[in-house]
């Protein structure tokens, strides 16, 4: 396992994090603890959860494991989404985040969380209220760092500017959806993260299973897979992606590299992502120990320049034109000597 700093902080985490969204729903407690044990044995030290994963059960499962195994694990969780039916049981207000953070601490059985992330933007709560809560939580010793998840570029920049203006503790990470099928964050979000020293913690690195090659483009999935149970599930919907030629091209390119190397397609997709700019740690989300073992085999895998270029070309989201394509890209740099040429 390789290691990097948590964004611009001094904390060190493994380049692959263990995501726990399946714990308590798709993965029972025994299976979850087996995954945590295997992950740590492989050198991983970064565990990511959230208060809404399995309605808090994921945090409870992680907490019972931590009580026996914590060691040097860097622990991350999130708050923002509904934890009850009341109007104040959702959002990033001080009132909700205080209850959310205290609830996470209790379920995890700890007095301190290393990384506390805003799970998404809240259009109702003033941003200063939200960020001042994070600062108070840092000062109170309840969290070490604050981070963001699912923020757009302008939302990220607004948060970082306000923090700099107030002199508060800087944010360290952003957790976006990012994989070979979802690269549009490279247009604005990745540059904003780089500008502000935020490390990326991408979720869905395997595109909901599409990049593992397990789904046919010609036959609706069935059986005990995420799309088999619900073919129209969320962003990875089979009905939408199976009709997309770019998705077919990406899957074909991943398969070609995997077969040439004698490794799994998942390992190729993970290796491409882990070496992208601003990357801190890629979040693995496995249902089974076998899936996790396959993912962990990518821990020291890096693609060649030619392999990366092949995947870049196949997965290019195709910005229409200015400012993300064509002349817009050319204008992002200039010769230091100036001149008209």
Q: Which helices and strands occur, and which strands form pairs?
A:
Layout: E1 3-5, E2 12-14, E3 16-19, H1 29-41, E4 46-48, H2 57-69, E5 74-79, H3 94-108, E6 113-118, H4 127-139, E7 143-149, H5 153-166, E8 173-175, H6 189-195, E9 199-200, H7 226-229, H8 238-241, H9 245-261, H10 265-274, E10 282-284, H11 289-296, H12 305-315, H13 327-330
Parallel strand pairs: 3-4, 3-10, 4-5, 5-6, 6-7, 7-8, 8-9
Antiparallel strand pairs: 1-2
Helix pairs in contact: 1-2, 1-11, 5-6, 9-10, 9-12
Explain how this protein is built.
Helix content is 39%, strand content 12%. It has 13 helices and 10 strands. Strand 7, helix 5 and strand 8 (173-175) form a beta-alpha-beta unit. Helix 1 (29-41) packs parallel to helix 11 (289-296). The chain starts with a strand and ends in an 11-residue tail after the last helix.
- The end-to-end span amounts to 46 Å
Range of strand content: 5-15%
Q: Output the structural class.
A: alpha/beta
Order of helices and strands: EEEHEHEHEHEHEHEHHHHEHHH
- How many DSSP helices? 13
- Largest beta sheet: what is the strand line-up? 9-8-7-6-5-4-3-10
Low-confidence stretches: none
State the total count of DSSP E strands: 10
Largest sheet: 8 strands, parallel
Features:
341 residues, two-stranded antiparallel ribbon, alpha/beta, eight-stranded parallel sheet
Brief sketch in words of this structure:
By secondary structure, the chain is α/β, with parallel strands linked by helices. Helices cover 39% and strands 12% of the residues. It has 13 helices and ten strands.
């Amino acid at each position: 396992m390789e290691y990097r700093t948590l964004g611009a902080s001094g904390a060190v985490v493994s380049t692959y994090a263990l995501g726990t969204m399946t714990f308590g729903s798709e993965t029972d407690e025994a299976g979850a603890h087996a995954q945590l044990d295997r992950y740590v044995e492989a050198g991983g030290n970064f565990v990511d959860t959230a208060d809404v994963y399995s309605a808090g059960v994921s945090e409870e499962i992680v907490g019972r494991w931590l009580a026996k195994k914590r060691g040097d694990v860097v622990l991350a969780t999130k708050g923002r989404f509904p934890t009850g039916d009341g109007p104040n049981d959702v959002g990033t207000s001080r009132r909700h985040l205080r209850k959310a953070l205290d609830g996470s601490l209790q379920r995890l059985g700890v007095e301190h969380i290393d990384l506390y992330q805003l799970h998404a933007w809240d259009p109702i709560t003033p941003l200063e209220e939200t960020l001042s809560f994070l600062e108070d939580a840092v000062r109170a010793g309840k969290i070490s760092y604050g981070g963001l998840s699912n923020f757009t570029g302008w939302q990220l920049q607004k948060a970082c500017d306000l923090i700099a203006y107030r002199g508060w503790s800087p944010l360290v990470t952003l957790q976006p959806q990012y994989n070979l099928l979802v690269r549009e964050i490279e247009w604005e979000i990745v540059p904003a993260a780089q500008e502000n020293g935020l490390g990326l913690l991408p979720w869905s690195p395997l595109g909901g299973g599409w990049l593992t090659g397990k789904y046919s483009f010609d036959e609706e999935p069935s059986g005990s897979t995420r799309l088999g149970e619900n073919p129209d599930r969320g962003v990875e919907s089979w009905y939408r992606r199976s009709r997309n030629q770019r998705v077919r091209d990406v899957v074909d390119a991943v398969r070609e590299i995997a077969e040439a190397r004698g490794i799994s397609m998942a390992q190729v997709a993970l290796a491409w992502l882990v070496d992208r700019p601003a990357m801190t740690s890629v979040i693995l989300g496995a249902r089974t120990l076998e899936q996790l073992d396959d993912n962990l085999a990518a821990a020291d895998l890096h693609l060649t320049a030619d392999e990366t270029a092949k995947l870049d070309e196949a997965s290019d989201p195709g910005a229409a034109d200015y400012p993300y394509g064509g002349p817009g890209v050319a204008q992002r740099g200039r010769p230091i000597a100036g001149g008209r040429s």
